[in-house]
Amino acid sequence: MSRLLAAIVAAGFALVSSPVTAQAGTDRPVRAPSAAPAAARVDQRPPADALLPGRAAGRPAEMPVAAANQSGAASRIHLEVTGLTPRTVTADGPPTVVVTGKVTNTGDRRIDDVAVRLQRGDAVTTEDRLRAVLRDPPPAERASSRWVPVAALLEPGQSQPFRVEAPLQGAQSGSLQIGERGVYPLMVNVNGQPDHGGQARLAVLSTLLPVLSLPGGPPAGKPPNPAAITMLWPLADRPRLVETLPGQPALLTDDDLTESFGAGGRLANLLQAAEQAAANPAVGASLCLAVDPDLLVTAQAMSGGYRVRAGATTVPGRGVDAAREWLARLRAFAPGHCLIALPAADADLVTLSRADQSGLTKLALSGTDTLQEMLRPAQPLTGVVWPSEGALDDRTLGNLAADGVTSVLVSPDSMRPNAGSQPVALTAARARVRGVRLDPLLAAALGGAAGQPRAAGVTTAADEPSLAVQNGLAALAFRTEFTGDPGRTVVIAPPHVWNASPGELGALVDALQNLFAGRIAVPVGLAQLVGGPMPAQPAALAYPPQDAPATLPAAVTDDVTAAENTLTDLTSAMQKDVSGNIGPAEFAVPFARNVLRSESSGWRGDEAAARGALRDATEQTAALQGRVTVVPPTNPLSWASGDSLLPALVTNELPVQVVVRVVLGDTQGVRPQAYDSQLIPAMQRRTLYIPVQVLRSGRLSVDVRLTTPSGTPLGTAARFEATSTAYSTVTIVITATAAAALVLLVARRIYRRVRSSRRGAGAHDTARGVRLPVNGSVAVDDVQTGGRTSERGRADRPEPAPRPPAGVPGEEGSSGS
């Protein structure tokens, strides 16, 4: 019984652990035999040729295709396509399609039997279907080429190039079997068998192949009313500059622009391709440069020397020469060509509007002046705005109209109704603005869907620099050849930060040149679309719901608003110095640009990056505030009276005058008196004497700080030490009270003495004898009393005075009485 149970357990384990493959010609997985240990399998491996697809038993064979990626297998290999020929199928083109590339094992296990083949799907016949294909590539299983072996064994980290080709026409096996004109999904499919796994699809690249006419067949006919094409050519990058205080070198968050401005870099390639495109008059007439003014400010700052942040310190930048050369080339090319300004720092205008940041909105729209100043004598179009992804809402449009915008380049996804291609009249806040429709199909094909989440191991041409414009070529062919909308206006709008190789940019320029040369399309300048009378067709805006989650959260915009308010208050406290040549608004612009960079559309979906840019902005604003400060005295102050003065030395290291208000901290024994705000001249020091009331004597500490008249802090607080010998009010009151009490007590004592003296005088008068003279006067004789003290201590009664002799006048008993 125990042996039976052990056998059942062993069989179950073998069944569970055996790998799964797909049966040839079906999507149904079948269980493969159990794999032997790795060491044994290496020792017993048959010759490599026997394992390659198509070599089994000495005859060709098809490799099984996994219906879905094996779990975990998709991340084990990287597919890089380096070439596709032809990019557009025409009557005079080659009859086969060729794809070249490279596969790399990026996993930690070896991969056996790596092979590649091409697959194509059904032709796309509607715009909705084409946009769906761009978002979510289909399986493309209508026809496929033969499997082409790439490597019998691919160890981790190893790479292997490949080349696969297939006939475009014909019913034979391995042909793509294309029989009519159209736009076809094309897939590059890589299969292999990871170690300890079954055969699986490891990587896929999906793109579109436009077929204008079949090889060897008649060429496509010319439409009677060709489409009108305008090509926007953006020159932009995400913000990297942190503008610093006057006299300090510019600071960049990284040095990536050194490579981008240099030969072979992204921005250098874009400018070079624009120069080559303009060499063709027709293509040049359709081309319009869209330049981010903040990129020009950054390039100019780099040209003068700059520093790059490296952790907690900074290092010298390497791109001085590259930035200087790129800027010189742009200055030479821009005059005579169509030119518009993107929102500065590619700012998210909708976010600015929803946060009521009108000051930053005006700054974002001031790029035309920057282009005029830095690219003179070029004359950019005025009043034209191309927002990020062409998305706007009514509130933003109203704010733009109030700031002088007359034309906006918007996606039909932001408009209702969204059908049609001609300019429309948009109404917001009782203002009418011209709306020029961007082609949403071309926008998605040229990179609007790049980076979107997809199934593991699946990439598109938009993700591959060497094929970045392939879907754009297909969408352009669809618009001009298969839409059925004669005379349609097609405004091609790549992403603002456009990443395409020189070959891809050249392929797009060549496609435009061929369309114009064959009269399949005609060029139209942007100036023609934004000029003339207001269109009669009305339309309304509707912000795309899919764009809402990407906007910055309210917590970030609230912090940006606080930073903007601080800088605005600082600017309001500044005045132009009589001897200077810079005003407050001009001086504050670099710091306002720092704040604006924190709301770039480049930070959509990346709150941490937005907060990092905002932190840089607030640090520079704080450094600006620190240039106006109060200096504490080196020795303690001495106050000798109740009404004293506190001498505060204020320094202003800014090139503008600043109005300051001195604020004293709450200190027991010191009461500040009313004191007006004071104007501190530029680059000077001034001692301000602050009246205070000293309420007590002894040692005192007073904290002194500066603010603007509206209360924004300036500099750091300083502590003043003082020694007071002044009598306080309490002391004076106590002293006066004591003096009054003393006077009262003295007066009382004097009064009592006087009263006592008077009482004593009355007693003497009673004991004195009184004699009445004949003439009526009264004579008072002193009464001499005498007494003897008895033995008991009591005074004896005084003896009577002796009677005077008889006959003396005036005496008692005289004869005349």
Question: Can you put this structure into words, describing what you see?
Answer:
This protein is of the alpha/beta class and 817 residues long. Among the domains are: 2-211, Immunoglobulins (Immunoglobulin-like), CATH 2.60.40; 554-622, no CATH class; 628-726, Immunoglobulins (Immunoglobulin-like, Sandwich). It is built from 21 helices and 38 strands. A hairpin with a 7-residue loop joins strand 37 (769-771) and strand 38. Helix 15 (470-482) packs parallel to helix 16. The longest helix is centred in the C-terminal third of the chain and has 39 residues, at 729-767. The chain starts with a helix and ends in a 36-residue tail after the last strand.
Write down how many β-strands occur, each being a DSSP E stretch of 2 or more residues: 38
Q: Kindly provide the name of the CATH class of one domain.
A: Mainly Beta
Per CATH, the architecture of one domain is Sandwich
Helical amount: 25-40%
Q: Which consecutive residue ranges, at least 5 long each, have pLDDT under 50?
A: 1-74, 770-798, 804-817
* CATH homologous superfamily descriptor of one domain: Immunoglobulins
Largest sheet: 6 strands, mixed
Strand content: 25-35%
Structural class: alpha/beta
CATH topology tier name of one domain: Immunoglobulin-like
Q: Which term fits the overall shape? A: elongated
How many helices? 21
Calculate Rg over CA atoms: 49 Å
Overall mean pLDDT stands at 83
Please report the distance between the alpha carbons of the first and last residues: 176 Å
